[in-house]
């Protein structure tokens, strides 16, 4: 038996209870978690914004140690430190053939199959986003674990599994931020802090952080922001004023709201790039006039998992960590237990803090 935070049904409170995990079968790995980040996507799964069969163990941003492996697993062994990959590419679908593994058509299949049972009554449990890291241990497909490079603290490495890969990829792969450019970052949560650090690493000359919460200015500046704007009706105007009247070269939206996406678009210069990282609901509709699309010549793009190939990007991120350019611990504002996850959900909803980290 292991302890886990279970979502009994969509919109139901999480319950910390015992679950029974099977031993790993062929092509599977069992991992003892060191830590798990509490991501806004977990909140979206719990409230039905994103689909997830229930009852389920949520959590998809995690790192830990391999405790057992099934037949045919060769790239990791018992005792190895690993990072969980919630969107492992199959390598065979149309998108993988296009070398776009972040769009893999089969990356989410594990979430739809039961992986464990409740100890109390034996009912089947589903793994949130296929990984189920809000638990002391989990069992996942072998291609969902990545060896953790040396020199990276194991607990903090959990953030690499989602927030950092997403933020880094949004800057380097999607927005393509270049040396000396101006970047506006909307939302100073876990992903937003990773975006700010990544923009600094990319050599951005000016990084403007935007958030509804004035208290986040210190977090943003510590991560590398040169300016901070409290979000309001005149946000785009403020950013144009800070950039000589032109607007930012790149705006990266980490909130997933129609009004924020629209504001991010309006705050970029003619010919600029707007990258949407935040996950919004189907009711969040964004509108543009045909004339402005022509006149401003801006690019608007979605960004899935940072448009990353985790196997290739993880070693790069590890080198930035070892060199002191990327500080994972600075993104963590709360270190909690499983029982603290509901409060972390409430804090995200209220826009407080950076990343909450469940430490086992």
In N-to-C order, the SSE pattern is: EEEHEEEHEEEEHEHEHEHEHEHEHEHE
Helix content: 25-40%
* CA gyration radius, whole angstroms: 20 Å
Mean pLDDT: 95
Structural class of the helix and strand makeup?
Answer: alpha/beta
What's the story with the biggest beta sheet?
7 strands, mixed
Poorly predicted regions are: none
The tally of strands reads 18
Q: Shape from CA axes?
A: globular
Number of helices: 10
Beta-strand percentage range = 25-35%
Distance between the termini: 15 Å
Summarize the structure.
The chain is α/β, with parallel strands linked by helices and 360 residues long. The protein has helices at residues 40-47, 94-97, 163-174, 190-201, 217-223, 235-242, 258-266, 290-296, 310-322, 341-350, and strands spanning 2-7, 15-20, 28-38, 56-57, 61-69, 81-84, 116-118, 124-127, 137-141, 145-147, 182-186, 206-211, 227-230, 248-253, 268-276, 299-302, 332-336, 355-359.
């Amino acid at each position: 038996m292991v302890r886990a935070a279970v979502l009994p049904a969509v919109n139901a409170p999480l319950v910390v209870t015992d679950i029974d995990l099977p031993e790993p079968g062929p092509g599977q790995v069992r991992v003892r978690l060191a830590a798990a980040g509490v991501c806004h996507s977990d909140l979206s799964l719990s409230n039905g914004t994103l689909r997830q069969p229930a009852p389920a163990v949520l959590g998809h941003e995690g790192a830990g140690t391999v405790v057992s492996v099934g037949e045919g697993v060769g790239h990791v062994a018992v005792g190895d430190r690993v990072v969980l990959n919630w969107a492992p590419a199959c390598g065979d679908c149309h998108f993988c053939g296009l070398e776009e593994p972040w769009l893999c058509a089969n990356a989410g299949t594990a979430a739809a199959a039961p992986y464990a049972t409740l100890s109390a009554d034996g009912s089947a449990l589903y793994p949130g986003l296929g990984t189920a890291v809000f638990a002391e241990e989990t069992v996942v497909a072998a291609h969902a674990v990545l060896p953790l490079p040396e020199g990276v603290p194991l607990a903090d490495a959990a953030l690499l599994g989602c927030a950092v890969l997403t933020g880094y990829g949004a800057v380097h792969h999607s927005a393509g931020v270049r040396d000396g450019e101006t970047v506006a970052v909307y939302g100073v949560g876990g992903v937003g802090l990773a975006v700010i650090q990544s923009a600094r690493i990319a050599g951005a000359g000016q990084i403007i952080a935007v958030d509804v919460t004035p208290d986040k200015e210190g977090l943003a500046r510590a991560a590398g922001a040169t300016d901070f704007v409290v979000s309001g009706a005149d946000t785009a105007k403020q950013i144009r004023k800070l950039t000589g009247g032109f607007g930012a070269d790149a705006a990266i939206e980490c909130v997933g709201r129609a009004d924020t996406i629209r504001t991010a678009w309006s705050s970029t210069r003619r010919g600029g790039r707007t990258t949407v990282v935040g996950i919004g609901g189907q009711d969040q509709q964004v509108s543009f006039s045909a004339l402005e699309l022509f006149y401003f010549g801006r690019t608007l793009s979605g960004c899935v998992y940072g448009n990353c190939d985790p196997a290739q990007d993880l070693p790069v991120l590890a080198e930035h960590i070892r060199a002191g350019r990327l500080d994972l611990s600075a993104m963590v504002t709360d270190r909690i237990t499983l029982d603290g996850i509901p409060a972390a959900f409430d804090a995200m909803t209220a826009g407080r803090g950076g990343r909450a980290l469940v430490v086992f």
